[in-house]
Amino acid sequence: MSRPILQLKQLSKSFGALKVTDGTDLDILAGETHAIIGPNGAGKTSLINQISGALAPDAGHIIFDDRDVTHLPMPARAHLGLARSFQITHVLPRFTALENVALAVQARSGSSFRFWRPAAQEEMLNGPSLEALGAVGLADRKDTSAGALSHGEKRRLELAIALAQAPKLLLLDEPMAGAGAEETRRLVEMLKSLKPRFTMVLVEHDMQAVFALADRISVLVEGRIIATGSPQAVRQDAAVRAAYLGEAT
Amino acid sequence: MATARSIRDAAATALRTLTFDQRMAAGLFALMALPPLLSSVLGGSYLILVGERVMIFAIAALSLELLVGVSGLVSFGHAAFLGVGAYGAGIVASHGLGTLAIALPAALGAAALFALTTGAIAVRTRGVYFIMITLAFGQMAFFVATSLAPYGGDDGLTWPTRTLVLGTRILKSETAFFYTALALLIGTYVLVDRLIGSRFGRVLRGLTDNEMRMQAMGFTPYPYRLAAYVIAGTLCGLAGFLLGNQAEFVSPAYMHWQRSGELIIMVLLGGTGTLYGPILGTLSFLMLEETLSRLTEHWKVILGPLLVLVVLFAKGGIAGAIRAWQGGSMTPAQLIALQALVARQGMHAAAHLWCRSRMELRQRSGTLAASSQRVAGEVAARWKTYKVVGGRLVVRVLAGMALAVDRWRRR
């Protein structure tokens, strides 16, 4: 629980005059579930995008697993063990659920420059994929094309894809976005069961989910982290109450 | 009795293991194998020559489908590879090296090299920029060919002969050449079909579906797209090799952007997203061209709006229409009925092509004005007979087969 797996050092990013990330320092410890909360427009997704490599920061450093990955492209970071889910669902609609996950397995096992053997028959792809689908409760939907899944199922498929990457750090950008109450409860249970096995960064608006899952919480307001600590400490932090929770409750 | 049953069971199992696409393609290949057999009965080689063209362009269309449908890269310069392949083989042949062991690697190597160098730049772009840059490279190849003075320049390069196979002129036999082209078409189909289902093919299709998701999984798009471009270019080079062989000639016109446009039309008309579609599209396009150009010299005025209608109302081309009609799965009876329709259409085209070749033959052999009216009358009568009797016969036989298969399946 002590070693930081991810360190952000004075990370900054501006869109024109708007500072979305303003000299952010943050340590994510190996094994923890770290929630990042904040009002709309606080820069949470921009922060996730910079960590995953979808967005290049203007200044500062990102240290992942003792390596400076600030200038590595997204696929390279994925190979180092950074997996993410997207706020807006990103699945491969014309592939079945199983094939979606199998591609994630394929990305980390063996060459993809194989031109002849049918990938659908490879047990080394299908085995781990079924396991990941099982972990999110989608095993019986494995042959359904991803485009035909319900919204909640797509959210879970995203999670299965990320799990199949066997990541060292899982970045979850609003996994509950758009999910109904029942689906949210289910996702929370699922993430709870995954907590012991994965280090997670969770961006989420649903406060019940956040307080149920997080070991530590960071509060982001206007690109700056105004507080980091245990859920209890953050709940009682005066600045947080003023800036965020006070508005929400 | 027992053997008959076991053969029947084996055939049924084989049919069931084939995908819908493979069954449709097998039907098309069977249809395409007919012209030499028909010609040996009817005489005249016109049908064979048209059949060869269809198969050669079907190889090119399949290679383009690998870019357009599988990789999401709409290349508007694909015909360049036809020319590069044909020039590669033609140039070594003009230096007396027209044997298979040298000419074929020269054709494929030239196409692969051209694909690698132009693709290294083109594949970095997407969408409309990719279209423009491939168009530019295609036209570049075209103009380089027109300025190749030692090899014919504008006029094109006449090959000394067709490629020698083990020192023999076997490809000079039109039947041998025909079935060589058919074998290579089937080989290309199998290759592309396997490729799409492989790990590599999955990555290509995934990148087309959602590039962001694929990058987050850890796939860097560039090397996969470049490899796809080189494979597609090389396969189209093979088509170019055959095209040059058929005509014993290659000219810059092979590479003109209009030809690239026609290749795209073949793929879209037949239906991208399938493999039998581009083959069917090639067949339909070239048959339409043959039929319409017989009606009027302004046949493109008819073809153009026809294609617009296909694009507007049959999304996914002919294959898309078939898919919509049969809603995902088809009984063998429907399948054969459908192929009967296609075959009937083909029969019509074949009958008039044959008539035309007879007419040309007689005119050429000196039977002139006096008899031309008689010939025309004969041709018209035959054409009618073929249309009615041939068409009905084909439909009846195939419908009978369909019913038999259906009954057999229900047992």
Structural class of chain B: mainly alpha
CATH topology of the largest domain in chain A: Rossmann fold
Average pLDDT taken over every residue of chain B = 84
Average residue pLDDT of chain A: 92
Q: How would you briefly describe this protein structure?
A:
The complex is a heterodimer of chains A (249) and B (411). Chain A is α/β, with parallel strands linked by helices. Helix content of chain A is 37%, strand content 25%.
Structure, explained:
The complex is a heterodimer of chains A (249) and B (411). Chain A has 249 residues and is α/β, with parallel strands linked by helices. Chain A folds into two domains: 1-81 and 169-183 and 198-249, P-loop containing nucleotide triphosphate hydrolases (Rossmann fold); 89-166, no CATH class. Chain A has helices at 44-52, 74-80, 97-108, 123-135, 151-164, 181-194, 207-213, 231-236, 238-248; strands at 4-15, 18-29, 33-37, 59-64, 67-68, 82-85, 169-173, 200-203, 216-221, 224-229. In chain A, strands 6-7-8-3-9-10 form a six-stranded mixed β-sheet, with helices on both faces. A four-stranded antiparallel β-sheet of chain A has the order 2-1-4-5, covered by helices on one side. Chain B is an all-alpha fold. Chain B folds into two domains: 18-329, ABC transporter involved in vitamin B12 uptake, BtuC (Orthogonal Bundle); 331-411, no CATH class. Helices cover 79% and strands 1% of the residues of chain B. Chain B is built from 17 helices and two strands. Chain B has a two-stranded antiparallel sheet with strand order 1-2. The two termini of chain B are 16 Å apart. Residues 366-372 of chain B have low confidence and may be disordered. The chains are: A alpha/beta (249), B mainly alpha (411). The interface between A and B is medium-sized, with 38 and 24 residues.
